[in-house]
Design goal:
Largest sheet: 5 strands, mixed
Distance between the termini: 15 Å
Number of domains: 2
Number of strands: 13
Order of helices and strands: EEHHEHEHEHEEEEEHEHHHEE
CATH architecture of the largest domain: 3-Layer(aba) Sandwich
Bound molecules: oxa(dethia)-CoA
Structural class: alpha/beta
Shape: globular
CATH superfamily of the largest domain: Thiolase/Chalcone synthase
Length: about 325
């Protein structure tokens, strides 16, 4: 027993922040950002919140699946930038979309969050505990990124992507294989202290107020080594060759990381779609945002085989093979 995704949705804040605007704020250039990351614009929340973006993406995923909110049994929100500690963002989403029959909770695995949450939904549904789930990745990273830190402020954007999934009925469709991992001893390379009260005494995590601290080069080298190895192991588990996969949807962090993974796997880069140029790195929202775009423009059709692969703070990584 496994899940099928029967609807997708997404939401982006109205405000667009360009590289040109960033040039005025920090010591950077449009050219540097394009060449080193592939990013040109990103959306930044003004009035939107993690929960409001997530709720909008969920409404659209439900509409796409032809389902009503009261039919939803489980809501999983992957996020690392919720404005509220309590209640969790998933409960706020439940209230906003009036999914009164759902259980709701958050998952924080940073940029791997959506893939981890989808695998969690799969486990719940496969166990028979729930028949369906809304899985949403949503971030307002602009709330935890230092606007004067050129290492991070040029990369991140805000947004949300959601899927409605339910028990699969057809042969071969669904989640064929999944894998996930964590390297907690490397947490200090990408971290953010909570913006409140007592300072936990973790010497290895740099003190930097409540802003994201990132050692970009360390994360880069982790990604270009771990992601290809993870995909190779995943395909092995699935008993599939890379040539059988139609599209590889990677975490959208840097176009050079995506191209490097494609090269290491010896797979043509055109099978690695990207929306990085327009939306930047939206952490847990990145993969479901891209999934929604490809679904809505007809690039993902029934029978398509997809690999979703993510990596991020933790450090964490995860991947799965889906047949649409
Ligand atoms: O979601 C998961 C989390 N994040 C990631 O996956 C990020 C992974 N890392 C990266 O994408 C890249 O490491 C970055 C985009 C963050 C940085 O790119 P890089 O090619 O690794 O640059 P670098 O840090 O090696 O810096 C090269 C130069 C340095 O100058 P010098 O020492 O060569 O004179 C930096 O000071 O570029 C400079 N630099 C910048 N210049 C203009 C660093 N950031 C900027 C900037 N604008 N924003």
């Amino acid at each position: 027993m496994t899940i099928r995704i029967s609807g997708t949705g997404s939401a982006l804040p109205d405000r667009i922040l360009t590289n040109r605007e960033l040039e005025e704020r920090v010591d950077t250039s449009d050219e540097w950002i394009r060449e080193r990351t592939g990013i040109v614009t990103r959306h930044i929340a003004d009035k939107e919140t993690v929960a409001s973006l997530a709720a909008e993406a969920c409404r659209r995923a439900l509409a796409d699946a032809g389902k009503k909110a009261e039919e939803v049994e489980l809501i999983l929100l992957a996020s690392c930038s919720s404005e509220m500690m309590l209640p969790c963002g998933a409960c706020r989403v439940q209230a906003e979309i009036a999914a009164q029959n759902a259980a709701a909770f958050d998952i924080n695995a940073a940029c791997s969050g959506f893939v981890f949450a989808l695998q969690t939904a799969n486990a719940y549904i496969a166990s028979g505990m729930y028949k369906n789930a809304l899985v949403v990745g949503a971030e307002v990273l602009s709330g935890i990124v230092d606007p004067s830190d050129r290492n991070t402020c040029i990369l991140f954007g805000d947004g949300a992507g959601a899927v409605f999934c339910e028990m699969s009925t057809g042969e071969g469709e669904g989640m064929i294989a999944a894998l996930q991992g964590s390297m907690g001893d490397r947490g200090g390379v990408l971290c953010c202290r909570a913006g409140h009260r007592r300072d936990a005494d973790y010497a290895e995590y740099p003190k930097k107020d409540a802003f994201v601290h990132m050692d970009g080069a360390e994360v880069y080298s982790f990604a270009v080594r771990t992601v290809p190895a993870c995909i190779e192991k995943l395909l092995d588990m699935a008993g599939m060759g890379a040539e059988e996969i139609d599209l590889f949807l990677l975490h959208q962090a840097n176009i050079r990381i995506i191209n490097s993974v494609a090269k290491r796997l010896k797979i043509p880069a055109d099978r690695f779609p990207s929306d990085l140029e327009r939306v930047g790195n939206t952490s847990s929202a990145a993969i479901p945002l891209l999934l929604d775009e490809l679904n809505k423009c007809g690039k993902i059709v029934r029978g398509c085989k997809l690999v979703l692969a993510a990596f991020g703070a933790g450090l964490t990584y995860g991947a799965c093979v889906l047949q649409w």
